[in-house]
Design brief:
With 870 residues, the protein is an all-beta fold. The chain contains 3 helices and 101 strands. The N terminus is likely disordered.
Amino acid sequence: MKLGSAGWVCIWSVVCAGVLPGAVADTLLVPSQYATIQQAIEAALPGDEVVLADGVYVGPGNKDLDFGGKAITVRSASGDPALCIIYCQGAGRGFYFHSGETADAVVRDLMIVEGAGEYGGGIYCETASPTLINCVIISNAVEFQGGGMYCWDAAPTLIGCRFKGNVSGNQGGGLYCENARPTLIDCTVWGNTAEYGGGLHCDHVAAKLTDCTFRGNTAYYGGGLWSERCSIDLSHCTFTENNHAYGGAVYSTASILMLDNCSICRNQGNYGAGLYLSASYSATLTDCELSANLARHSGGAVYSSRDSSVTLTDCTLTGNRASYGGALNCGQGSAVLAQCTLVGNMTESSGGAVYFSRSHGTVTACTLVYNIAGGSGGAVYCSDSTPTFNACTFSFNIASSYGGGLDLSGSEATLNNCAVTHNRAQYGAGIYSAWCSPALLNTLIGGNTAVVGGGGLRVYESNPTLDNCILLSNSAADGAGLACYDFSSPILTNCTVVGNVASRNGGGIYCEGSFNNPILTNCILWGNTGGQISAPYGGSPIVTYCDVQGGWTGTGNINADPKLALENDGHLLATSPCIDRGTDTPAGGLPPEDFDGNPRSVDGDGDGLASADMGAYEFVPGAPSLAVAPTVLRFTLAPGQSGSQTIQIRNSGPDTLAWQVHCDADWLTIDPAAGESAGQIDTVTLTAYAGDRARGTYIATLWVEAPLACRPHMPVLVILHVTGTLRVPADYPTIEAAISAATPGDVVMLGDGVYSGDGNRELNFGGKAITVRSASGNPATCIIDCGGAGRGFEFRSGEGVDSVLQGVTIRNGYSADDGGAVYCRYSSPTLLNCWIVSSTTGRSGAGVYARFAEPRLVNCVLVDNSAAAS
């Protein structure tokens, strides 16, 4: 440093305290002026810069560098850390901060390589707060903590730094922080390894991370980040391709985490591949993306356990996978989800998107679509839990066994203003309720398909209450709307059960067994195929003040066309015989409001006496009423394609009602976008355009608005799925991997060759309407060889004709049970131009076995198969 007019003796004590006013910072050059970096540091005064020429610095004086508390800068001359390297040669570290250095102690534009020791292989920082800018800390290793950097009782600031390939034998492969307050901005933590916290390990830390990336880090606990007794704020950070046993991206115990606009994608682990929470603290995620995470056991994206809580707001969880809870597993914890979208998550067992076990959850205004469970609960599985769902949509989810939309086993759940539509399962396609008494209020259960029983709702030893609910256009073999089994007595009050289709018994309500006694009051049962109410084995439904097509014995019951506004809507027209025909004292109590939020009861027929109407909607005289159907639309289009569907709008009240329709999706057009209804049905055409959009699912909410109506805003969920081709082995290593990633309408394309081993046998479509086919179309050149170790394919999730297997050979399939090569149960897939050869079974159907199924085999060859039975 060069001084002004003052002399050395007079001002030495001042110099030691800091930079003098008017002083000019000096530049000390290495190696041209000083042979080593440490010599230059020792010669420097506060404010000086030690500038390193490009090159590799090794040996004594060029490692274990100590600022001695000075406020100086050490930097490379070129500004490129790849050209200016501190090479520690596996003995010693790069920098040693331990003298109270402040943020004015700066290291920038350097690379630190192959440092080693017990703590802080690259950098050691104790009771100091230096600043590191654009540094690369790479391939350092320690025995205990902080392969790249160790911080204790420190507050360093790291900007634009990269920690890569560092190793710790215990904690913090990239960085270790304890009793510290680090700030990381625009840093990359990549490919580091430790037992705890592969990328970053924090203990008793208050940290702030902004625009940082954690990639490819590995640990047994917390591949990307380990947090213990910390408060950590992460903003616009990315965690990807990290690996773990617990917490692939993040493991948090006794900590408070705040994540805003973060991306947690493609991480792997056993529990909580994205985020693992433990020990009674919380994580809050806002505007985050959690996608394509894979947990080998529980919680593909998030696992919350041991009294921990997680809150997700405006987050997207897509394509995550686990055995239990494809996106979220909440075990002995709690979860709050608001305005979140959960799409295409998958589990081999239960809870395609969400799994609650001995937990509490509140889920509000969330959309759960295209989730799949290999067992139960296509979207949500609950066990011994108390979840509440408000204004949520569960659509197009699939479960192989129970509860295509939700499985509420042993849980006191509440659904309020929800839509459960177009889900599939063997039992309880919309909702499965067992050993519990859930409460459903103002909920639409429509368009669900059960292979066996309970299209809309199946109850087993369960007593749910349904108020103002609509069971519409569901299908099943028995109990298309509602199926009751074994000591179940659900209470339905002011419900509308219409247009459901049972291929055997009970289009509306089905009761199997003498101890099933549902109570229906103020309900409408009309237009159901297979009978409105069926109790073939001694059930005793109690039905009063209901409109039942064909009639039913009970006080106040009628048999008259209910005069609904639309075929797929439950609003009453002014001429409906159901107006004022209900009772105000039903067994379950009268709901204070109807499905639209109108007060109940009102004098609907003008006789001066107010009495409840039958059905989910109360007719309000003198007020226009907005009826809209359907409320969920799905477009499945290939790139470049377009498609059109319609919705209907009707004013079911008096006068003329002006309406308008709008949606902010740029892929959807509306014609007409406005109109008036004086009682006639208006039709609006919606056209979706796939354009050049990437394969995936796009979701939008369309709003039908009529300011003068009783309920002025009606939402319609619109889903666009753009299909694509998933190529094996070019894009996916196994057929199973491609099927798992596929969504309805996709094609899994197999290159010619022989496919064998795990992932290429025991294949299951999971109920998806997809095509698996050879690229060549020639089964002789595209072969699935099961090697006598299993079947080729199992279809047991209600697959239909749109699930297609084409142009492949299946050989050497084996099962000790039925179905050596292909097994079908409650499913009817299509097999085109397939060869099924040399397969065996211990029982029946060596080539193809079908039970309660109608598979279509077209131009197929079955040769040299052998069954022990038939």
